[in-house]
Amino acid sequence: MEQKRSGFTGKLGFVLAAAGSAVGLGNIWRFPYLAAKYGGGMFLLVYIILAVTFGFALMVAEIAIGRKTQLSAISAFSKLNKKFSFLGYVASIVPVIILPYYSVIGGWVTKYLAAFCSGQTAQAAQDDYFGNFISSTGEPILYFAIFLGLTALVVLFGVEKGIEKVSKFMMPVLVVLSVGIAIYSACLPGALDGVVYYIKPDFSKFSITTVVAAMGQLFYSMSLAMGIMITYGSYMKKDVSIESSTRQISLFDTGIAFFAGLMIIPAVFSFSGGDESALGQGPGLMFVTLPKVFNSMAGGNIIGAVFFLLVLLAALTSSISLMETIVSIFIDKFKIKRIPACLAVLAVSVALGLVSTLGYGIWSEVKIIGMQFLDFFDFISNSVIMPIVALITCIVVGYVIKPKAIIEEVETGNVKFKAKKLFVVMIKYIAPICILVILASSVLGAFGVISI
Ligand code: PHE
Predict the structure, then answer these.
(1) Ligand 1 centroid from CA 246, angstroms
(2) What's residue 224's pLDDT?
(3) Within its chain, how far is the Cα of 73 from the centroid?
(4) pLDDT under 70 in the chain at which residues?
(5) What pLDDT score does 28 carry?
(6) Considering the domain boundaries, does residue 440 fall inside one?
(7) Cβ(103) – ligand 1 distance below 6 Å
(8) How many folded domains does the chain comprise?
(9) 226 Cα nearest atom in ligand 1
(10) Which residue's CA is the nearest one to ligand 1's atom 7?
(11) 392 in any annotated domain
(12) What is the per-residue pLDDT for 174?
């Protein structure tokens, strides 16, 4: 990988590529169901505060580490300080855990695309359609295989550039479509209560769980704490501003998540007649709710098909960046060629992905610390390993290499680092303390030691 460190052409190229990795199922599938479950407006507020403080500081740090060392995560930390080589390895576990279950959800999106293309809008809008689908055996495996296969084909033939071109054109269409659907949803009968629930923070809904969920989501959505932004940073030109690129990526990422919530949450209120228990359904929320929205619109099957196609493309650009990261680690570390590396990653992903799919079907009785496999993989990566990586990254930057090293990198070529003070305070004090508290409570909570 090091030999062909090609580099992005300019700022736009960098921002779009990083946004392609960041914007995906995390924004459209994961954000709305978490916001619905963990207090609506309160979750949104906590998320935005974390994004402009934590998220900003960590992303700046990761991109700067990549550009400074010119290495991908696994080697970057050992170049900064030998004692912290392990951090690169820990960070590299995250994409290995995420890719398989990401592909399972990507498979669900593919299934819905197929359903809308074959005119089954009314069936897809039925209450039990989603439940029947994920609890069956053959179909979810088939669609998981299609999604993972597409991802692998792109990575195998190294045609990411082509995909990126398509997504550059598709992304703006996705934004416009999401805003349009969000407005439509908000105008459905009874949806206004949902808009209020989603936008107005209710302080009685504040809890440590809200913060744990929001922080995990922040890492996931912005592709942080797993070394991906370090790799992207290593491809970035020296004259491009790290600070303003970070702002643009996070604005784009948070914007899409915001509109996805607005598409889904008010519609939940409208279709459930204000029954709040519908808000807590978790990973199925988007798949249960959106078909009802499309079914109620004129031309909804076409809009639905286009929407799921765009979501599929956004998901693919993310899964490709996940797989590419793992493949390049395998190539670097095990000194193997691209094809065997891809096949090895594929084998691991098929195994873990099958476990995740079957965990919703024939293995639904099997639970790990009270969770189904897919939820467990999601929990262990987002709420445990990523906070640990983020915490140690803060310690390395704050106390080992010192914030000055990052600030110098950000200010290369006379670029002014406007939020320098915020960055230092976040990285040295606020972020590590908060992450520690959150990590402790999420782990203790999962094992039932404390109730959160
Ligand atoms: N950020 C992506 C999303 O929101 C998920 C992802 C995580 C992609 C990590 C790449 C790496 O869907």
Answers:
(1) 16
(2) 92
(3) 18
(4) 1-9, 159-167, 274, 449-452
(5) 95
(6) yes
(7) no
(8) 1
(9) 9
(10) 223
(11) yes
(12) 85
Atom number, ligand 1, closest to the C-alpha of residue 315: 12
220 lines ligand 1 (CB under 6 A): yes
Measured in Å, residue 385 CA sits from the centre of ligand 1 at 15
Task: Supply the CATH number for residue 173's domain.
Answer: 1.20.1740
Tokens representing 400? Answer: 């080992």
**Dist. CA 204 → ligand 1 center (Å):** 31
Paired residues of 371 in beta bridges: 368
**200, 238, 294, 423 from 55: Cα distances, Å:** 22, 22, 34, 10
Asked if the structure places residue 451 within a domain, the reply is: no
Domain limits at 32?
11-446
Q: Name the one residue in this structure whose structure tokens are 């094992």.
A: 447
Residue 244 in tokens: 């303003």
Q: Is 249 in the pocket of ligand 1 (CB under 6 A)?
A: no
Q: How far is the CA of 18 from the centre of ligand 1 (A)?
A: 10
| 114 contact partners, CB below 8 Å, separation of at least 6 | 143
**Model pLDDT, residue 2:** 41
Does residue 6 lie in a domain region? no
